[in-house]
Amino acid sequence: MLFKIRSWLHQPKVWRFVCFASSIVGLLCNAFSSSFYLLLGNWNWWKIFLYIVFSFLISLSTLFAKTWEYSNPRCLEAHTAFSILVITSVYSFFLDKDVKQKADAYSLLSWVAFAIMSLGLSRLSQVGFGIDLLYFFSGLLTVQLMKIKVWLVIVGGAFSYFLILLRPNLDSEPRSVYHGLQYQDHVVVEIGSHSQSQGTSHSVTQVDSPQTIMATSQPHPVIDMVWPSRGTTHGAGGPPPENIDGTKECFMSCIEALKEENASVISTISMHVDKYLKAHLLSEDNISVALPVTDFDIVINALPSGTINDLHEIVKRMVAGGFGKECSHVYSSCRREFLEESVSRLGLQKLCIEDVHKMTWQDLGDEIEEWIKASNIALKILFPSERRLCDRVFFGFASAADFSFMEVCRGYAIQLLDFADAIAIGSRKPEQLFRILDMFETLCVLIPEFEALFSDQFSVSLRNKVITIRRRLGESIRGIFMELENSIRRNRAKTAVPGGGVHPITRYVMNYLLTACRSRQSLDQVLSSSLSVQMNWIVELLESNLEAQSKIYKDPALCYLFLMNNGKYIVEKVKDSELGTLLGDYWIRKRAAKVQQIHVHYQRSSWSWVIGILKLDSTVSLPPNALAKSMKEKLKSFNTMFDDICKEQSSWFVFDEQLREEIRVSLEKILLPAYENFIVSFENAPEIGKHGKHIKYGTADIQVKLNKLFTESSVNRKLLEGIGNLSNTEYS
Known about the structure:
The chain has three domains: about 1-170, no CATH class; about 195-475, no CATH class; about 605-720, Monooxygenase (Up-down Bundle). Helix content is about 70%, strand content about 0%. It has 29 helices and two strands. The protein has helices at about 1-10, 10-30, 35-40, 45-65, 75-100, 105-125, 130-150, 155-170, 220-225, 245-260, 260-280, 300, 305-320, 325-345, 355-360, 360-395, 400-425, 435-455, 460-490, 505-515, 520-525, 530-550, 555-575, 580-585, 585-615, 625-650, 655-685, 700-705, 715-720, and strands at about 185-190, 210-215. Strands 1-2 form a two-stranded antiparallel ribbon. Helix 2 (about 10-30) runs antiparallel to helix 6, helix 10 runs parallel beside helix 14 (about 325-345) and helix 17 packs parallel to helix 19 (about 460-490). The protein is elongated. The two termini are about 75 Å apart. The relative contact order is 0.05.
């Protein structure tokens, strides 16, 4: 009984009747519904006339839906689907805007009827919108039921689920999408034997000589779309059945001749690939680029023209004899072998996801370079050449050419995409960013080429796969930036950087950001926020980290010197770079002003006591002997404190020469005038005179001592070279 029902549901006549009846019911119920009244107002003669015309056209179209099957151009299908999308969107907008009360029975019945009508249309026709209308009316029905009672969403959902689940089970054969089916039901037809008696065999035999040819023993839905059934294509010029064996033998002879030419063709392609790599793929900066290639005839030009012409003529005769499927199988098998042999010279290993995840990142970096080269060569040279050859051999049979090309290139295309997918779903460490960016940018450049080559109905899954992998690579890039942020947060050093120099994390992060800015366009595509916001946030995290690490220094002056060094390094890296363009002049001025403020704090924490010693209190009057004694003690304290500070800070380091000079000049401005005034007062004081035996330093000596501060030492020299980086140095 169930079998009879299923068979009955597969009858087109049944679904034409269902579409017609449901359209009539839906249109009548919609005419009496409250939603129609609220949207369009009361009926009048011109509304009735237009509605009757509209209903007549809709109902009539459902009766003739079958005539549209497989005949509509893809452009018409796309435009029709877009029109329906716009119409249903506008209708849904006004319905939601104007109809606020609960739906009545007529409205609910109309949505049910229209949903069933849409199901029938999607079963009968391929105009590109039937299934979309089903989703639209099912969703509309569910929303209207919820307006009555929220729990009725269960009823609407169950009805929608039933229709949507029923839809894929109505097709006995796939219509338009190749789903990677494997063709296993083949037989071997011996030349000179009776093929009719062997037509029900289910064995699989490899074709490797002109004495055998594969023939399909069972109908295959995808192949049947491409090739008509055997025995229905005998027309003018087609070989009669008794001569088909000779035609098949000629076909296999041409295939063998094609195989014999493979070695010379591969050599020609290899030379062309080397020439392409040198001329186009690597720029001066060794960055991969994909420039247009127009010479797609290298395979055809390398083959004897007579072989291709003979193959085309025999294909026409084979198709006329009903053996088009076998032509496609044998041709695709032959060209697959050629393609695999060609790409093996590119050096890309066939790695599964587990193999990729077991490899070190250094080894994977080399594999990614090979992948970039192989992808460019495949999409720029190999695949277009095979496309051109398929079009030439199967000229006049567009669907067969599309299917054969897909069969030839699908395996290698999936291999390339699977490798990129394995990288995208792997670990996300900061040092992996730039290789993954290279892959992402390569894929973005090559996607138009990919979609142009694999634009047919059989390659939908491949087109979807390449878009999915590009999205996953973008997710991986976002994950790497999150890991970079987490690494900065976790970075805590137990020991301070010697001499208050630039911290390794500062060098690593800033150089990392500068390198990342070279891929600004790509990063703007994948990051959830703009690149400028992302960069600003990372620098703020870095500054917060440096503030925390400065607390390691016990000397406040050295703490400020550390912040000065690192702040100045950040500003200098940002200025006159792509990063500076992103962050802006205001950001740079703000950070530069912050460095100056830290400079002031450094002077106050380090030299304020020294300068305070040299001050004379003019408000206090002392006897000459007491004044002389006080000034001697001050001078002695100054000499001791100045010596201690100079000795201590001579091991400190300022990496930037300009900053180092600014600190020295500022110290001279505040220290030398105060010291000169004190020495003059000291020499003029009674009981002291100008003997100078207590004066240890002259002003020139002070300058010399200051000039020796913050210079490079053997310990600090390592800091200039950048000690370690965030990826291989642990800071607990």
